[in-house]
Amino acid sequence: MWICVLLLAQIVPIPAGLDIFLPAPDANPLTIEKIKLGRQLFFDKRLSRDRSMSCASCHDPKFGFGDSRKLAVGVGGKLGSRRAPRIVNRVYGSSFFWDGRASTLEDQVLKPISDPNEMDLGLAEAVSRVGLEESTLRNALASYVRTILSGDAPYDRYLQGDRTALTEQQRFGLKLFSGKAGCASCHVGPNLTDERFHNTGIGGPADDGRFSVTRKPEDQSAFKTPSLREVALTPPFMHDGSLATLEDVIEFYDKGGKPNPNLDSDIRQLHLSAGEKQALVALLKALSGKIREGP
Questions:
Q1: Band of the pLDDT at 10, cuts 50, 70, 90?
Q2: Other C-beta atoms within 10 Å of 180: how many?
Q3: CATH number for the domain that contains residue 23
Q4: In 194-273, which ranges are continuous DSSP H helix?
Q5: Nearest-CA neighbor of 101 among 55, 110, 4?
């Protein structure tokens, strides 16, 4: 059973444009103490095998709690097969990791610690190093991540009535985003994601994506729609970091993605003009706002 917790402004100020109700499981209600402990643990390098990295090594605040590298890099320089996602606003998420293999933050937060390609530390050793029980470690990290929020972007201020918040070009981009370009078919709601899985052809058959979890043929090489909050902060783009710039992303979708048997039905050629492409890029840059975390 889940409950909705309304955090008062003095605990976690919620940026404009976001839902003020932060969902948390009744087994792990948000408290200031757990949030503060979770923040300490998030930056604690003792949670990696060689004490060289923390959660923040791949989810860096200066990159919107994401990463600037094409693919995630673990202890000893081990290279992952996917890039580290931004984790702002994951409190509103309904699935976690690019393939959705975790259904709650409590299920997600410990997996990178024990993953041999990431922090590569057994959980028994992890809890011993920090002097906590596994449940305390899990609940504290999940609680802290729930407070990492991004909002109050020019996009939000415009939607709330400030007609000067977006430039004329960005307003044109917003019209395209919701209309001709079809971006809003997947990037919807306050967090600009449908939390679903789509095959756009990125990565191809080399990565099973959602299929590795569901074993459903229709999920082959489908990946979760990322939130577009703070998207301009974290090039390169897509789950495999294969597109270097926002311009490349727009060009990719303009061409209709990469054809394959499981290509999502919403992906089609857009026939955008050069000016329309530039307007969409300008809008995406207006999705960066204020990032807040912790109490």
A1: low
A2: 13
A3: 1.10.760.10
A4: 211-214, 246-254
A5: 110
Q: Is 288:151 a contact under the CB 8 Å cutoff?
A: no
User: Which amino acid appears at position 117 of this protein?
Assistant: N
Residue 259 has pLDDT above 50, yes or no: yes
Domain C-terminal end among 119, 149, 179: 149
Q: Is residue 86 part of a domain?
A: yes
The whole-model pTM stands at 0.94
pLDDT of 137 above 70: yes
Residue 184 has pLDDT above 50, yes or no: yes
User: Residue 62 is part of which domain span?
Assistant: 2-149
> Any idea of the CA torsion for 110, 111, 117, 119, to the nearest 10 degrees?
0
Residues 124, 199 share a domain: no
Q: In angstroms, rounded to a whole number, what is the distance separating the alpha carbons of residues 139 and 100?
A: 20
User: What average pLDDT does the segment 106-130 reach?
Assistant: 97
Look at residue 199 and tell me if it is in a domain. Answer: yes
- Same domain for 141 and 65: yes
The answer to whether residues 62 and 126 belong to one domain is: yes
Torsion angle, alpha carbons of 48, 49, 51, 52, to 10: -80
> How many separate domains does the chain show?
2
Q: DSSP letters along 112-154, please?
A: HHH-TTTT---HHHHHHHHT--HHHHHHHHHHHHTT-EEE--H
